[in-house]
């Protein structure tokens, strides 16, 4: 398993550098902008007051936009789940199926490595890759604080990233499970992306329309903590999201053990669903 983990982690080094450095640079830019924006808080609040209440409710609380926590909550962490969610969907949907479609998965399994070891190594590499990307992003926010008036304790700054990591894992797990159920990676990534976007809009609209609150309870982003995390994480929400992600990963592992491995290209439904194959 650890050999698979090391190989997969090396394969994802481009993802780590690209996503981590890119998001880190964006953090440096935003924190550096705080000094100029902070001097215009009164004008900004007056400008935001003309926006409809529904707009403010959808995108979050702008009341403390001039504070370091409020600024990062609105300008950075509010939309970060969509950005890193794209990463999670792409990696999760191709964690195993990408090798299957290019014809190398059956060759890998020809070596003395079990499916469980291969699966576990790939999933562990995905988790570590996610942590490293978020770590580089955290560094990107922390570095400019040495010369900016935006000051947040570094341990407190890490709290929203814990909630963000939980979101990466849940959407990655959803996409991984879809890749085991659907005939191709393209369909799996599309399904994961649709669920990500739907979760974003349902969570936002539920703040406007109370009738959507029940539906929003099944949305992972309903339990995401951005600005709220600076005041303390909700451990129950984090544990719940991680628990669901773990169940989905176990279910995807079971399906991976049952499936026939294709020698290349996209497959049909009978390759994906074991009970259809048995009924043939």
Keywords:
0% strand; mainly alpha; 71% helix; 280 residues; single chain
Short summary:
With 280 residues, this protein is an all-alpha fold. Helix content is 71%, strand content 0%.
Q: In words, what does this structure look like?
A:
The chain has one domain (2-260). Helices cover 71% and strands 0% of the residues. It is built from 16 helices and no strands. The mean pLDDT is 86.
Q: Largest sheet at a glance? A: none
Mean pLDDT across the residues is 86
**Helix-strand category:** mainly alpha
Q: What would the principal axes of the Cα set say about the shape?
A: globular
Query: In whole angstroms, how far apart are the ends?
Result: 34 Å
Residues in helix, %: over 70%
Provide the low-confidence segments as ranges: none
Number of helices: 16
Percentage of residues in strands: under 5%
Number of domains: 1
Radius of gyration: 21 Å
Order of helices and strands: HHHHHHHHHHHHHHHH
**Tally of extended strands?**
0
